[in-house]
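INFO worker-7 received task bundle
INFO bundle size: 2
INFO processing item 0
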Amino acid sequence: MTTSVRRLPGWAKAVAALVLVLAVLFAGIRLTVLPGIRDLFGTQTHDRSGPALLKSLQDMSRYDAASGTFQVVVDLEKDSRYLPDAIRGTRTLYVGAGTVDAYVDLGQVGERDVSVNGDRTFAALRLPHARLGRPALDPDHSYAVSKQRGLLDRIGDLFSDNPGSEQAVQKLAVRHIGDAARGSGLTARAETNTTGMLQGLLRSLGFKQVRISYGS
């Protein structure tokens, strides 16, 4: 004995699917209406966002807040212990000009360094102290005023690939420019400029009070 199974026509399947969807929607509406049911099956929202300003500050990374231009005069003399300067020895008088930038590394600002109140009217930021970049010698404004070389040094230049090299005085000029920058208060000016920039930026975004501090 065989049993035949009747298959539902296509329109009947479509109706059944529509009824199922309507039933699910109706059940969802009833859950939101009945007291207590919504809290039992609803979802909870947790705001775990970091400080709103952190990513923007890190994207800015290094902020070059100040730049100083310096000029030094280098008087470099090399002589021989047993020979007179006319035979062996050099003396170069060199004027070196260059710049040094002072910057604040905003990329080091972490979540604990940024505080924002709930209504976004107050922001407090703690930044690392400003640092000095490497001195950059300006070749267009640096030059040798005079060069004195002994006889043996002049002969040696004839067989040298780089006669009359100024590399030694240039290195010395860069070192003196760096020393001058460290004693010029350039980092303090950089922190002042950074504070002014951030205060203006945050106030344009709606913050009424902005407090900037430096150090760990």
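INFO item 0 finished
INFO processing item 1
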Amino acid sequence: MHLTPVLRSEALKVLTLRSLCGALLAVFAVTTAFSALAGASDTSDPDFDPLFMALSGVMPGQIAAVAFGTTVVSSEYHGGGIRLSLAAVPRRGRWFAAKLVVVAVPTLAVGLVSACTALVAARAGLGPAASGLTVGDQVRGVVGCALYFTLMALLAAGLTALFRSGVATLSTLIPFLLIVSFVVGDVAGGATDFLPDKAGQVVLYQTHDGTLGPWAGLAVTALWAAAAVLAGTWRLRGRDA
């Protein structure tokens, strides 16, 4: 089977599963709402960064992006659905590539819309505090936010294929994003610059003094996502459905 009909069938699965559409809606709603709330916060902190404050909704929004990437893959393991999928598309690499495309494209599109809306909503609250943001800063932040969401969703999709379980993926990633990354940061210092979340979020800052620059940070997150996808591909190819 050619890739185009495989992509069409996988896209249809996303459109017909309400949980997947709900996860994408949550990316938009959560990112926008938390950024708008952040726009009304105190701006007198000496470490205040207007771009990161305006896009701070990415912190909870990434959980929804991870849930989307996880569910797209884990839904195949419910009720033995993956057996039917692989019977229709025996070339497992092609099937998994289609899965990754239907994870990446909607996440990127929703991420762009979410970041634009969040930035507008937060800037309305920040007022003069955001006047120092240039057009370049804002474009970088919006595009970087969308790419970050996409990479985190792909990371989750790869881990789900590796673990063959959505529960295992979410039980690993969500505590890591909410707790472990911050705890390790207090102990290990600069080593956290190379964790997938910390590295990717550098692009959301107007100025940053860490080891990595904005695009280098996203490149590190991309390497983490690529490693997870390769591991998931290896597990998919090497184990019976």
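INFO item 1 finished
INFO post-check item 1: The mean pLDDT is 87.
INFO post-check item 1: The radius of gyration is 18 Å.
INFO worker-7 idle
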